[in-house]
Every structure is written in C-alpha cells, then in structure tokens.
C-alpha cells in the first residue's frame, strides 16, 4: 500500500534510542517542510483545481501536525531549535526530472514516498517507544500520512498514463530505498 521497497533497518532504531529528543525536534521540522512542499505544489499548479484543493487540505493538516509536535516538545521541556536536516529529502529531490510533465509527476511521487516513509516510521515508533503519550501521538499521525501518500500517488496518475506513472514510482521507490539504507550518522526522522 505504501509502495516502499525496503523496511527500516535496526541501525535507525539504535539512533532513535540514543537521540529521541533530537528525532522529535526533527519531526517538527519535517511537518513544517511537508506543509511547504504542498504549498509549493499549490503555487506551481494552481490551475489544476483538484490538485489545488488537495494541496490546500494537506497544507492545513501538516501545519496542524507541526503545532501538535511543538506542543509535545513544550510539555517535555525540549526547546524547538534549528537542526541540520538529514540528506534524505535533498537527495530524493535531486531525482526529480527538469521538464514537464515529468517534473510534476516526480514532485508528486517524491512527496508521496516521503509521506510513506514517515507513515512507516510513525507505526514503528508507536510500537518501539515505551512512553504511552508518545505511542498515542505516533499512532494518531499514522492514518493522515497514509492518506497523504495515496493522494500524491493518485494526483501523479492524473498527469500521465497509469503505466508510465507506476513505472516511475517503482524507480523512485528503489532510489528511496537506497537513500534511506545509507541514512545519516545523526538521529533524524529520515536518517
Ligand atoms: Fe504530517
Ligand atoms: Fe503528511
């Protein structure tokens, strides 16, 4: 359903155990970034009304997630701060084609794959962490990120014939699996 080609490795769980606070701060940045990705798509393709409506909904939801993570950080006394991001998003964006309609398709599919990986990791964190508040928190986010993934893939399929979009999704998902397997040496939501 999520179109991911690899499961998260044990290496990441070790990073989470060593730096959960940093993962939480990074999570807030990821929600903010997710809102900005949807906003940028809205601005780029504003005459595609179905896309514009879907992006509007996602922007609102991601900003609400951002607020929820900020609230969680505050309750825990963890200061929100600037953080060096993982290389994951940047490396995926380098795979996006330059010319339309490939560019639109890739932007939507990359956004969809990032949602899928976030969704997978929220589900894993909900089982992995022992804190009941955090477990509920991650469980509460899982469903909307799965829905965002499906929305992005559906919109990409509207930009070209289904088979070519599916083929591109398989290729990008393989790239995503390779990028996340390499990861980063510091704890992040997508390290
Ligand atoms: Fe979100
Ligand atoms: Fe999302």
Précis, in short:
With 191 residues, this protein is mostly helical.
* Tally of individual helices: 7
Going by CATH, the architecture would be Up-down Bundle
**CATH superfamily grouping:** Ferritin, core subunit, four-helix bundle
How many strands, what sense, and barrel or not for the largest sheet? none
Radius of gyration: 16 Å
N- to C-terminal separation?
22 Å
Into which percent range does the helicity of residues fall? over 70%
> What oligomeric state do the depicted chains represent?
single chain
Which hetero compounds are present in the coordinates?
fe (ii) ion
Record field, number of beta strands: 0
CATH C-level class: Mainly Alpha
> How much strand?
under 5%
Shape: globular
Low-pLDDT runs of 5+ residues are none
Number of domains: 1
What is the helix/strand order?
HHHHHHH
Q: What is the CATH T-level topology?
A: Ferritin
Overall pLDDT score:
96
């Amino acid at each position: 359903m999520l179109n991911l080609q690899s499961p998260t490795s044990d290496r990441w769980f070790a990073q989470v155990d060593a730096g959960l606070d940093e993962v939480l701060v990074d999570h807030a940045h990821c929600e903010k970034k997710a809102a900005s990705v949807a906003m940028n798509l809205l601005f780029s393709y504003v005459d595609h009304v179905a896309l514009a409506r879907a992006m509007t909904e996602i922007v609102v939801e991601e900003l609400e997630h951002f607020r929820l993570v900020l609230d969680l950080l505050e309750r825990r006394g963890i200061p929100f701060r600037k953080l060096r991001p993982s290389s994951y998003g940047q490396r995926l964006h380098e795979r996006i084609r330059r010319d339309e309609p490939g560019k639109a398709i890739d932007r939507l599919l990359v956004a969809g794959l990032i949602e899928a990986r976030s969704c997978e990791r929220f589900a894993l964190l909900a089982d992995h962490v022992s804190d009941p508040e955090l477990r509920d928190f991650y469980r509460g986010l899982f469903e909307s990120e799965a829905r965002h993934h499906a929305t992005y893939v559906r919109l990409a399929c509207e930009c070209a014939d289904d088979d070519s979009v599916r083929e591109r999704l398989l290729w990008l998902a393989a790239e995503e699996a390779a990028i996340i397997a390499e990861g980063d040496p510091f704890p992040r939501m997508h390290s």
